[in-house]
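Writing this down once: the sequence line spells out the residues, with the fold written below as integer tokens. I am pasting one below:
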Amino acid sequence: MHEEKTSLGPWLYWSLMTIVPLSYGLINLPYYATEVMGANGYLAVPIALVLAFPSLVAIYQVMKRFPNLNLLQAGMKITGPFCGSLCGLGYLIVLLLTLILFTRERVNLVKDYLLPNTPLLVLVTTYLLSAAYLASRGLETIARLASFVILPIVLVLLLLAVGVLPEINVNRLRPVFHPDLKLYLPGGFSVLYSFSPVAIFALITPYLREIQRKIPRYTAGALLLLVFFYMLFTVGVIGTFGCEYGRRHAFPSLEMVRAMEYPYLLLEQAGLFMIIVWNTLALVGSGFIYYAVALGFSQVLGLCDYKRLVWFLLPVKFLLVMYPENSGETKELIEYAKNYGWIPLFGLPLFYYLCALVLRKREDKR
């Protein structure tokens, strides 16, 4: 079975750690954050990070115990081949379904806002082939692409967010703290999905051995940037539209950018810039998750290398991406993924780490 002989440096790791979650959570996070917490939706973001923290610690601890194995391989060592394979397959199936919904949502956005006359079949085929090609090129290629686009994308996102500031009405952001403390925990869970791509890095830990000691601080830097952009765009949506009206839009962050005005320049183009930036994010994020899914299946099943599995999975992905009949049905399915998809992604690392502690399992011990 083919395994990549590569390793990621600090910059490549940080770029991927930033790009992949941004591609997954940025554009629709305000919709879900305001659903539970209203005008205080931006506070759901740091709460979600706190909720995700134990699982991220567990991933790092499993990596230290099994430096040459990723999470799924370590799981088979900890719980045995049968139980480990069963848990791994469940984990990968959830990840694959999440990727499929992620892909369909991105295609729906392109069709609704950019290419309304282009058949859905053409858009889905183009997107899947692009993501499959990127995934088949391997981890290093995806990471280098992420490192190439990260700085321009962060700069453009920052400029777009700053451009919205004149449109913000501070009164829409009040009260600063919601008097009902019971809403804070559900609010954090409502946007926990936006950090779940960070947990997928548990599948590439063998390629991070050379920077193992640096991982905590580079991960912390990436998470702080994610929290900054998530909160910034959520504040922008609430301040521009209000928490109730903002939820009338399928993609509130995009509508927020389209609402701003630049005299004599980019009057009607800011929304287009946002779509281009976001689809660049989405392609890199999809390529990485697609790679992780193929790699995981190749290791759990042991049938063939991940490059072949990328192309074997392509027709399966195509059929499932085309399954939702419209944007409304896609939104309903994404609601299920948002509410429950993070459970195996965050839960499995905790389960394996606790089992490793109880059973005293390490890579050099039976």
Observations:
- The mean pLDDT is 85.
